[in-house]
Amino acid sequence: MLRAIITIWPLFLGIALIQSGNGLQASLLGVRASLEDFGTFTTGIVISGYYWGFLIGSQIGPRLVQQVGHVRVFGAFSAIASSTILMHSLFPDPIVWFFMRVLTGLSFSGIYLVAESWLNNASDNKNRGQILSIYMIVQMGSLIVGQLLLGVSNPMKFDLFLLTSIIISVAAAPILITAAKVPDFEILESMSLKKMYIISPLAVVAIFIYGIANAMFFGMFSVWTTQSGITSQLTGILFGCWTFGAVILQWPIGKLSDIFDRRLIITISAFFACLFVIIAGVISPENIYWFVFFIILYGGTCNPMYSLCISYANDFLTPKQMTSAAGTLIFASGLGMIIGPPIASISITLFGLDGFLPVMGSIHFILGLYALWRMTQRPPIPQEGQGPFIAVPIKNTPISVSLNPEIDVITDKNKNN
What we know:
Layout: H1 2-35, H2 40-68, H3 70-90, H4 94-122, H5 128-148, H6 159-176, H7 193-199, H8 201-227, H9 232-259, H10 262-283, H11 288-302, H12 305-314, H13 319-351, H14 356-374, H15 398-402
């Protein structure tokens, strides 16, 4: 284990810096777009560009890695991600920003692909679970750090854009100078969305709806806070609290899903996420301590849905199918994430600022209702037939699913309805 960590520490350091930069720019751009008076709907379209790029990158990234190699892809995409954030500050125009967000999403998709394939190659059955755990801690922790950096300077200045660019640029250095062995790479065969839906309708629909809600918050929450008169410092703290909630509740919710019918945990998590985000909207940031408390609870019940859906789908798959199925589910969530920011913009336009969080809650409510209905359509899987909960990073690639050591020991599952 120690030898593996020593070998891939540059990768962990690079990912930590990349995630910090991603967390900072995600909150920064929403704040700056509001201050530039782009308009709420226009801002939603601009923010969705990231998810368009991430979806495109998931399709072309593997071929690029196979053709030119991991290190070059990582270096190239890091350079693009570093330069695009500066373009936002130099050209505060919605059209320019949209295309820069597309390029950023494409770049981060390639960066994650390289990182996770490298991690998978450096691990074995004895340490794979530990490496995945460290990877998730690094991702979540660095994201929180990046979100908190929003408060170090005025978003209208060049400083935060430059800081983001520096962080992402420096992230490439430990990767490009590493002496670690470059892994072999094989393009994974993907499962069709139709086939995945036939195998598990709930997993596909739930992860799609989750993608909508996740992108509404991650992409547009800073727009809402800025228009609500909340400072950029507090906005960064609130973002960090949302991510922190995912850190503390991911494991307990996953453990419960291993004990009980996983659909029940998906249903309860969705309804609780709905409840917590609506309460946060009713309380408003004027009651800051209670608002922070419910934002933490919301993040804790919302974010594990990603891993719950992948784990539930795996209950109906063979080990050989799991990685390709994960790619399909990630694609489904990406489709949801593309339409999430525009939906958030429309909700603010139609219902005002008071409608943003309740509309987000209604998205989770729909997810809960669908999961509840699916429980009446298919008998539960016996507990001994359930595979273990697989915690995976949000906005990952299918390779991160194969990092979980349980995939090597899960037996074929009964696919009968």
